[in-house]
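Here we describe the complex-level prediction in full. Unlike the single-chain runs in Section 2.1, the two entities below were treated as one system.
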Amino acid sequence: MPTPSQHNDVQYQTGIRPLYFFLLVGGVLLFFLLNIGLGSVNIPLADIVHILAGGETEHSAWRKILINIRIPRAVTAILAGSALSVGGLLMQTLFRNPLAGPSVLGITAGASLGVAVVMLAGGTITSIFAIQQLSAAGSWLIILAASLGSAAVLLLILLISIRIRDNVTLLIIGLMVGNITIAMVSIWQYFSSPEQIQDYLIWTFGSLGGVPLDQLWIVAIVAVMGGGMALLMSKPLNGLLLGDNYARSMGLSVASARIWIIVSTSLLAGGITAFCGPIGFVGIAVPHLTRSLLGTNDHRVLIPGTLLMGALLLLACDIVAQMPGSTATLPISAVTSLVGSPVVIWVIIQRKNLQASF
Amino acid sequence: MSQFQSIISTEDLEIGFPARGRRRKSKTVASDINVSLHRGQVVCLLGPNGSGKSTLIRTLSGLHAPLSGGIKLSGSSMNHLSNKQASREVSTVLTDRLTIGNLSVHELVSFGRSPYTGWFGSLDQKDKQKVAWAIESTGSGPLIDRDVLHLSDGERQKVMIARALAQDTPAILLDEPTAHLDLPNRVAIIRLLRRLAHNTQKAVLFSTHELDLALKAADALWLINREGKIITGTPEDLVLDGTFESVFERNSFEFDRTTGSFRLHEPSKEPIYLQGNPVGVFWTRRALERSGYEVRESNGTELQVEVRALEQHFEWSITYQDKEHNSDTVQGLLSILQKL
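The structure predicted for the assembly as a whole is:
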C-alpha cells in the first residue's frame, strides 16, 4: 500500500480557467462601456472615458445622460444579470434539474404576486412607480414582498419535489404554480383601474431603466447579499450535486443548506424582479453557458463565473434592446427570451432527455 | 485485540419506516439487530429482495433514523454525534445515481474531504495527500481528468469508492457496489474492497445479491432472514449448519452444499451415479443437471457414468443395463443418454 507522503507532488491542474476569468472580467468591462456608449444619442467612447474620469465636457447633456440614465441602467443590468443567473444556478443545483430557473419554476411569477399584493393592499398607492417614488422605505417594502412571493412559490415547489423526483413532472408543476400566481394577478387586475393595469403591464415587460439613481444602492445591497450567501453556500452546494444522501453522509447539513439556498434565491430573484420586472431565461441559460465554458460544476468556481457571465449577457442583451441608432427600445425580457430560449433548446437537445444530467 | 476493535455496533436495533401520512403504523423491516463490524474485516450483507439490506446500510450510515435501539460508532452513541462527527466515522457508497456532468473525477473525490475542510471547502496539504492516496489506492489515477458523466459503471463505482476513501473513515458501507457490473468489474471491485480492508484496517460492509460472490469474498456474513432477524457468522459455518440454505429457501430453488451454488433445475429424469476425474465430474455434473438428471455420489443406480481424463481430452463411459457406451464429448454423452 503506497504511503500518502509519496504523493505530495500530485497536483491537479485547473487548466485554463484563470484565462477564462480574465476574459469574462474584460468582457464585462467592454460591454459596460459599449452599453453606456451606445444608445439613441451617440456619445464617442473617448468622451465617455473622459466623463467617467471626472473631466468636464462641452456637452453637459452627455454628462447628464451618462450619470443619470445610462450608468444606472448599465449597473442595474450587471446586478440583475448576475443575481438572476446565480439564482438560476442555485435552483438547478437545489432541484438537480437542468431546466430549473426563476422564470421556469414560477419564482418570478411568485415575485409578481408579491408585488401585486403590495399594490393592492396599498389601496391608494396606484403603481409600482408611485411606491418607488415613496423613497427607500417603499423600495424595501416591494423587495420584501417580491422576495416573500418568490420564497412562497419556491417552498411549495420544494415540498412537491420531495415527493416527486421526476424532472419533467416537477417542471410542469412549476409551470402550473406559475400559472396559478399569474391567474391571481389577473383577478386582481380585473378589479383594478385601467391606470393600475397599465402600470403593471409596463412593469411586466421588464425594464433595466426603472431603478432611479438614488435607489440603485438598495438593489446592489440585495444582490450582493444574495450573491454572498450563495458563495458561502459553495461547499454544501457541491455536496448537493451528488444528491441529498451523499451530501448528508459527507457531514453536510442538508436541511439548513436548503433553507439558506431558498433565502438566497428568493432575495436574488425577488429583489431583481421587484425593480426590473420579470426578466426571463437569464437565470436558466447563463449557468449552462458558464458550465460549458469553465467545464466544471464546482460552485466555488461556477458561482463567480456565473456572476460575470450573467452580467456580460444582460449588458449585451440591453445593448440589443436599446437598438443603437434608433429612438425605440425593446422590452428587455423579450430580448433575453430571444437569446435564452435557444440556449434552453440546445440544453435539451444536448442532453437528449431531461432525466439525465447537467 | 486492536484488530478486532468494533467500529460499528448495534444494540437491539430495529429498522424500518415510521408511521407517516397514510401509513398509520410504523413498518418494521428488521429487528433485534445485535451486530458489530470490526477493523480489517469485510462483511457481506445478504438477504432476499425487500429484506431490508439497503435500509440497514442507510440506517448504519445515519441517513435513516432507526425505529428503536442504538448504534455505536467507535464506542460513542450515534445520537450524541453531530452529522459532521458521524461522517468522520462512516462513509457510504450508495445506489443513488449520479446525475451530474461537468465534474472531474478529481473534483468528485475531493468532495469526500468535506467533513474536514472549512466553510469554503478548500483543501489543505493533508487533504490533498488523502485525495491523491484515495485515487491511487483505487487505481483511479488514469481517470482523474475525466468527466464523471462519461465514466463506465465500473469506473464510476471505483471513483465513488475513492470518494469514500478520501473521507478517511474507519468504516465504509456500500449498498450493492457490484450491481450493474460485468464479471471482471465485479471481481475488481471486490478485490479492491478486500485489499482496502486488509491493508488499511478499515471495516467494510457491503450488500449484494450475488451469493456466490459473497461466499467467496466475505470474512463474515450478515444474513437477514424472512422473519427480519439477522444471523451472523463465517460464510462456511453458515453453509455447513444449513442457515444459508434456510434463508434463501424457496420452492424449487435450493442451495447445493456440495457445489456452493444454487440448483437452477429440478431433477425430472432418472438418477445417475457419476464418478471419475474430479474436474471432469464437476463439469459433467453441470451438464447432466441442466438436462434434468439427478446426479448421485453413491452407487446403486441403473445409469452409471465414469469420466476418465486422457492426455488430450476426457472420455465418458456410460453403463446401462450391463451395456457400455462411450463418448469423447459431453454433447455425445447427452445424446447417448437421450437415446437410452
